[in-house]
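Lecture notes, continued. The same structure-token format from the folding unit now serves as the input rather than the output. Read the line below as a description of shape only.
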């Protein structure tokens, strides 16, 4: 058990209190990106970040105690993953944080309604759903902040998937990471829409973890990233509060482009975009030149997420008929 876990679970039950437990967590999309760690074992970031959760799009995870197994069993979207796969190893190492030597192995069954590993933060909602399910299984009754800290140990961005709506992940200052967690912004924006433009629902070639490390170590521009993020975060939070969509969209889009620019200047460069990504970006900029308020963000994959308002839904759909539209605050607008 690492230090963070033992501090948070002090006085809590060490034996599962049920045979299985289940929980859901929403996917989240960063509007101001997390890109770079100050501690890679604890997933402590170099900067704060800000996301929007995707409501009903996310992961549902059931964890069950296995009786006589010799390893964990991981089932993702009805398919059992090979024991030696990197995802199963990562998940087992995460579960090791919580089990005593005497503990048995687990079956982790996750159903995700978003494309896995397509740069759509599916590991984030997976780890958030898993820690919520573990909390139920062991009857720890941890608060959201503690769950956010523990989710972060699985995957950094998972700490933002504990809430709906806008979530800021405060980077924190402490070495043990107990002050590095998400918290929700108390702002609703029912008119906001997110469009998933999925070209390639395929696993990404380079993991975010490796790409971040490579960028931090080799991009000559990384040193200005923390300054960029600080400014973008402030602008975004002001725009969200004021429901100033154009500032919101343009700052989020520029933040994503700056993150990808960092990667392109790494040695050797990392490029997550494909020709389809670039073609869609040009279509979005053309729409904007014609007066349509539509923006995009892009994560560690080729797909884009469009940002627009409910009033423009029909026009955006004309330009992008393949779009899957999400209302992160519900369909009320
Ligand atoms: C984000 N991404 O803020 C950024 C933007 C992708 C691009 O967080 O190494 O799976 O597990 O902490 O959280 C994806 O990275 O990385 C991510 P780890 P994670 O959403």
């Amino acid at each position: 058990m690492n230090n963070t876990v033992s501090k948070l679970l002090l006085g809590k039950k060490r034996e599962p209190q049920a045979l299985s437990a289940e929980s859901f967590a929403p996917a989240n999309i960063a509007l101001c990106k997390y890109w770079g760690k100050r501690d890679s074992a604890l997933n402590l970031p170099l900067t704060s970040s800000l996301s929007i959760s995707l409501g009903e799009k996310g992961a549902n995870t059931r964890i069950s105690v296995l009786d006589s197994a010799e390893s964990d069993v991981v089932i993702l979207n009805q398919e059992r993953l090979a024991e030696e796969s990197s995802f199963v190893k990562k998940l087992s190492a995460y579960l090791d944080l919580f089990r005593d030597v005497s503990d048995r192995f687990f079956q982790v069954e996750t159903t995700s309604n978003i494309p896995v590993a397509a740069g759509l933060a599916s590991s984030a909602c997976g780890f958030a759903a898993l820690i919520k399910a573990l909390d139920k299984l062991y009857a720890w009754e941890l608060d959201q902040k503690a769950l956010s800290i523990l989710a972060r140990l699985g995957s950094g961005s998972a700490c933002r998937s504990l809430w709906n709506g806008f979530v800021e992940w405060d980077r924190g200052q402490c070495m043990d990471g107990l002050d590095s967690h998400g918290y929700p912004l108390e702002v609703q924006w029912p008119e906001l829409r997110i469009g998933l433009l999925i070209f390639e629902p395929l696993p990404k070639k380079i993991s975010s973890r490796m790409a971040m490390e490579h960028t931090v170590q080799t991009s000559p521009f990384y040193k200005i990233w923390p300054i960029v993020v600080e400014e973008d975060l402030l602008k975004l939070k002001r725009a969200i509060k004021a429901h100033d969509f154009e500032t919101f969209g343009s700052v989020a889009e520029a933040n994503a482009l700056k993150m990808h620019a960092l990667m392109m200047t790494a040695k050797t460069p990392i490029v997550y975009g494909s020709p389809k990504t670039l073609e869609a970006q040009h279509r979005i900029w053309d729409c904007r030149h014609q007066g349509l308020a539509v923006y995009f963000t892009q994560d560690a994959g080729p797909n884009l997420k469009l940002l627009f308002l409910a009033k423009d839904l029909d026009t955006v759909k004309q330009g992008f008929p393949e779009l899957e539209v999400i209302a992160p605050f519900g369909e009320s607008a």
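Point for the exam: Residues 30, 33-35, 43, 49, 121, 123-124, 155-157, 208-209, 299-300 surround 2P0 (CB under 6 Å).
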